[in-house]
Amino acid sequence: MYLLAHDEKARGPYDRSRTGLLVRAAVLVELVLRGRLVETGGGSVAVAGTGSTGDPVLDGVLREAPGHSWKQLVRRHSGRTLTAVEDRLAELGLLTVESSRLRLGGRRVTVSDRATPRAVRDRVSAVLHGDAPVHEVPVADAALAALAAAGKDRSVLSRQDARELRARIDACTGRLGDLAPGLEKAVRGLSMTMIAAQGGMGGS
Description:
Blueprint (H helix, E strand, L loop, with lengths): L1 H4 E2 L4 E2 L2 H18 L3 E3 L5 E3 L8 H9 L5 H6 L2 H14 L3 E5 L7 E5 L3 H15 L9 H12 L8 H6 L1 H14 L1 H8 L1 H9 L6
Antiparallel strand pairs: 1-2, 3-4, 5-6
Helix pairs in contact: 2-3, 2-5, 2-7, 2-11, 3-5, 6-7, 7-9, 9-10
């Protein structure tokens, strides 16, 4: 999700606040796919299993999960999670992160291999523009497509595409309901969450 939102010219996410929420939602999807977060009655979230996931970003979000709803977890510390994802990708050699006093967020980020984000965009674009039935698309790819649409990522989805592909986007978002209905609802509400965050109401 981070690579999808990265803007090469801007040397960082096209919008840090928006991208923080998208990355945070993507982390929650990953934890559900790994069976570490489950939805209980009333849409609340519970942790399943014990021990580390092997990834410090996932472990950090997992520790915060008990006692919160999906919507709260998307908003909670989203800015901190975004920074943690950048640091983790830098450790893996996928990014170079430099301090910047001139940039909001204080960072300039360069992707080590330009082909990497291009491959992610091609993958998501294939889901959104392809002919394969959405129910046959891997859930992780459908989730990325749904998040890209929620974040209005124009690198894979123009305004016209967003209108013409509304039913396919809706179907991709619906795949999240197979994992956790509350998570699907939280992703469907991301647009309003982003507006609230830009107004100073979002958790960061």
